[in-house]
Design goal:
The protein is of the alpha/beta class and 423 residues long. 42% of the residues lie in helices and 13% in strands. It has 3 domains: 5-184, Nucleotidyltransferase, domain 5, CATH 3.30.420.10; 212-316, no CATH class; 326-422, Rossmann fold. It has a 5-stranded mixed β-sheet, with helices on both faces. Strands 9-8-10-11 form a 4-stranded parallel β-sheet, with helices on both faces. A two-stranded parallel sheet has the order 6-7. Helix 11 (264-283) runs antiparallel to helix 12 (290-303) and helix 11 runs parallel beside helix 13 (307-316). The chain starts with a strand and ends with a helix.
Length: 423
């Protein structure tokens, strides 16, 4: 039995309910078993405390006027989740807060174990090998637009689209049915439906300003060390992008490290590797500003990176540069896009991805590629051999991801010439 999915995203006052932080916004998207969006729900939640980093989530005290508390909407929330596979990006974060809120009301919840919820971040290791962790990074591989980040419903919509892309590429996978069956067996607290209406946030003008270091966290690569290291790195991502931690709050990171079973030596090594990746990602923009350096110094203090390690990381990195390359299909040569550089040979089994509005339908192009034994994928991963674009200067998520991975981008005309030569 499969009742579909409930994709959920939360905005909170901080990183850890054990430090008194609360939920301040909930966004839910109901998705069919086939991955199609059915309906959406959202509400702000009065945490009965200060709202935390308002410059990030843009919720202020005025938005809480008349807003329900978690106790007011807990019953409705259960009704919206019960019987469905609960899905979130970095599900351990949502599970931790939901469990704490239900416990605060004196009820047991099925979220004591984070594995109760399906995690699109964890699934990215399978569907997007080599991808980073953050929602924006995973979405860009499928050209899924993420607008109004740090608004719960906007992030839930993007996560729902990501889930739909996963389902669409693996419809015969029996695990989808298995997860659906398990969801119907979960024991939920018996709570009466609430009487308080769900209240959408007052839309603020503009979007939250993001620093270059914040943007750089969108491009950080996967980390080695297994699921625990990935979960811990996701905490660092959120802390840095939300500006939630200061150097004096490093004990929260230590607490997460213990929760994920990471020894101090392992955590220290992960900090160094994370910081090196962060500096390289900032440098990828081609310049390191004074403001960047100031922020990186703050991050270094938080992570226990020494001044010498900071200066070495900052000054040993250089901006990445990419050049165009040419293309040939199968064993046939095609006109070179840049004569002085070697062609890219796409043999049988190569994987390509398309982006943009082509003159021919994608179905036709993919059929021509398939006849040459070349597989088309809907997303960009490190296994992608080449990205075929209607515009080589495309600003699409797939194009940004290809440049990040150093994957060559070729124009539609070059592809058509290669296909003609191969016929």
């Amino acid at each position: 039995m499969h009742n579909g999915y409930a994709v959920i995203d939360l905005e909170t006052t901080g990183l850890a309910p054990s430090y008194g932080h609360r939920i301040i916004e909930i966004g839910i998207v109901h998705v069919t078993p086939d991955g199609e969006v059915e309906r959406t729900f959202e509400t702000v939640v009065n945490p009965e405390r200060d709202l935390g980093p308002v410059h990030i989530h843009r919720l202020r005290g005025g938005d809480m006027t008349g807003a329900p508390t978690f106790a007011d909407i807990a019953g409705d929330l259960v009704d919206k989740l019960r019987g469905r596979v609960v899905v979130a990006h970095n599900a351990s974060f949502e599970a931790r807060f939901l469990h704490a809120e239900f416990e605060r009301l004196g009820h047991r919840s099925p979220f004591k174990r984070a594995s109760t919820a399906l995690c699109t971040m964890r699934l990215a290791q399978e569907f997007l090998p080599g991808s980073g962790r953050k929602l924006a990074d995973c979405c860009s591989a499928y050209d899924i637009e993420l607008v109004d980040a740090h608004e719960a419903l906007a992030d839930a919509r993007a996560t729902a689209s990501l889930l739909g892309a996963y389902i669409g590429s693996s419809r015969q996978d029996p695990r989808w049915t298995t997860w659906g069956t398990r969801a119907t067996e979960l024991r939920w607290p018996g709570l009466p439906s609430g009487t308080a209406p769900w209240t959408a946030r007052r839309r603020s003008a503009g979007t939250a300003d993001r620093t270059r270091v914040d943007v750089a966290t969108d491009r950080l690569p996967a980390v080695d060390g297994g699921a625990e290291a990935t979960l811990y790195a996701a905490v660092l991502d959120r802390a840095l992008s939300d500006d939630l931690l200061t150097a004096s709050d490093a004990d929260q990171l230590a607490s997460f490290g213990r929760e994920f079973g990471l020894r101090e030596s392992v955590r220290a090594d992960l900090h160094r590797r994370y910081f090196a990746d962060l500096v390289e990602s900032v440098w990828a923009g081609g310049v390191l500003t004074i403001q960047d350096h100031i922020q990186l110094e703050r991050v270094a203090r938080l992570l226990g990176v020494t001044d010498d390690e900071l200066e070495h990381a900052v000054h040993s990195r250089q901006p990445a540069r990419m050049g165009a390359r040419s293309f040939s299909a199968a064993t046939q040569a095609a006109p070179a896009a840049v004569a002085e550089e070697p062609a890219i040979d796409l043999g049988e089994g190569s994987i390509v991805t398309l982006t943009g509005e082509m003159r021919r339908s994608r179905t036709e192009i993919e059929a021509d590629l398939a006849r040459l034994g070349i597989r088309s994928a809907p997303n960009v991963t490190k296994k992608t051999a080449v990205l075929i674009a209607a515009d080589v200067d495309s600003l699409s998520g797939k194009a940004r991801k290809a440049r990040q991975y150093g994957i060559p981008i070729i124009e539609e005309d070059v592809l058509e010439a290669a296909l003609a030569a191969a016929r």
